[in-house]
Specification:
The protein has 2 helices and 4 strands; from the N terminus they run E-H-E-E-H-E. It is of the alpha+beta class and 92 residues long. The chain has one domain: MTH889-like domain (Alpha-Beta Plaits, 2-Layer Sandwich), CATH 3.30.70.1340. It has a 4-stranded antiparallel sheet with strand order 2-3-1-4. A hairpin with a 3-residue loop joins strand 2 and strand 3. Helix 1 packs antiparallel against helix 2.
Length: 92
Amino acid sequence: MITVKKVVLDVLKPHKPNGLEFATLLSEKCPESLINLSVSAVDENTESVVLVIEGDSLEYERILATIQEMGGSVHSIDEVEVLNSSEHRDTD
């Protein structure tokens, strides 16, 4: 079974919701996850942020949809961690 354990995203978001609200709303859609948001640049209307999201089984499409619902857009996927936990059975 393939599971996404970590994803690092470069995201452009409006000033509202602020970083705390943005991360909290994202966390609500990604239960059992750890979210780290760092602001990398600010201009008059937007903020560029780096999102690090870690969990046991992340759903990228849900993350993307949630970011878009809050007015943000993903510029790039900068890092991923994926686990292949295939089950091996003895046939003896």
